[in-house]
């Protein structure tokens, strides 16, 4: 059987389309260089796993590296998917997410406040993510350290915000709060709802 590898996903919008909240320069660097590096890192590890009988192989270290690079690949893919031009995105969610926010947080204001806090307080490099647990039928805001997606299995990731410095330093330098404000202008709620509905419908 043919071996499969990761590929850098194409954006569904142009590099200039997130301006003025995310510059062409920032988006291009982040997508073409940083995301590509995780794709390359994951594929290099897959090749190492594929040649486990002929190369020096350390299952503990290599498995950890794999979660880092695959995490980087997946999280960035989700990140691009849940962004879009400010003219068509941002504002308040409707649909499935709106219902869960009302049930679990009371109001969008409260949800936005908590997610913003989770993002702003990421230590070093990491992510703020929204997950949905089907077992308890609740949504949760969580943090991911670096790219190691050690979220509890069953808590599926629905929405992500990249809080690595490489995501915002060209546009915002050290002004994390301004970058988080920009995220709320670009968030594609339709995509978050689509992910939630797919997960809820899956067996
Ligand atoms: Mn990133």
Report what the structure shows:
- The protein has helices at 24-50, 59-81, 95-105, 108-120, 169-172, 176-186, 189-201; strands spanning 126-133, 138-145, 155-162.
- It has 203 residues and is mainly alpha-helical.
- The protein has two domains: 24-81, Fe,Mn superoxide dismutase (SOD) domain (Helix Hairpins, Orthogonal Bundle); 95-201, minor pseudopilin epsh fold, CATH 3.55.40.
- A three-stranded antiparallel sheet has the order 2-1-3.
- Strand 1 (126-133) and strand 2 form a beta hairpin.
- It is globular.
- The protein starts with 23 loop residues before the first helix and ends with a helix.
- The mean pLDDT is 95.
- Residues 30, 34, 76, 162, 164, 166-167 line the site of manganese (II) ion (MN).
Question: What is the fold's blueprint, element by element?
Answer:
Layout: H1 24-50, H2 59-81, H3 95-105, H4 108-120, E1 126-133, E2 138-145, E3 155-162, H5 169-172, H6 176-186, H7 189-201
Antiparallel strand pairs: 1-2, 1-3
Helix pairs in contact: 1-2
Total beta-strand segments: 3
Order of helices and strands: HHHHEEEHHH
The CATH homologous superfamily name of the largest domain equals Iron/manganese superoxide dismutase, C-terminal domain
Number of domains: 2
So how many helices?
A: 7
What is the approximate shape?
A: globular
Q: Which strand-content bin applies to the residues?
A: 5-15%
Q: Do you know the CATH topology of the largest domain? A: minor pseudopilin epsh fold
Low-confidence stretches: none
Oligomer: single chain
> What would CATH call the class of the largest domain?
Alpha Beta
Helix/strand-derived category reads mainly alpha
State the helicity in percent bands: 40-55%
Listed once per kind, the bound small molecules are: manganese (II) ion
Radius of gyration from CA coordinates: 18 Å
Distance between the termini: 28 Å
């Amino acid at each position: 059987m043919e071996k499969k590898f990761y590929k850098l996903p194409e954006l569904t919008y142009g590099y200039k389309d997130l301006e003025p909240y995310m510059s062409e320069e920032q988006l291009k660097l982040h997508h073409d260089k940083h995301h590509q590096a995780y794709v390359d890192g994951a594929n290099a590890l897959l090749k190492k796993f594929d040649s486990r009988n002929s190369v020096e192989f350390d299952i503990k270290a290599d498995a950890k590296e794999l979660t880092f690079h695959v995490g980087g690949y997946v999280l960035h893919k989700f990140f691009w998917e849940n962004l879009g031009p400010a003219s068509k995105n941002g504002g308040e969610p409707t649909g499935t997410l709106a219902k869960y926010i009302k049930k679990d947080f009371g109001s969008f204001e409260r949800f936005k406040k908590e997610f913003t806090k989770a993002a702003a307080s990421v230590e070093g490099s990491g992510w703020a993510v929204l997950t949905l647990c089907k077992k308890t039928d609740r949504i949760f805001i969580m943090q991911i350290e670096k790219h190691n997606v050690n979220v509890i299995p069953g808590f599926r990731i629905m929405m992500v915000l990249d809080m690595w410095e490489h995501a915002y330093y060209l546009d915002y330098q050290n002004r994390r709060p301004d970058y988080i404000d920009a995220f709320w202008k670009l968030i594609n709620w339709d995509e978050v709802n689509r992910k939630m509905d797919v997960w809820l419908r899956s067996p």
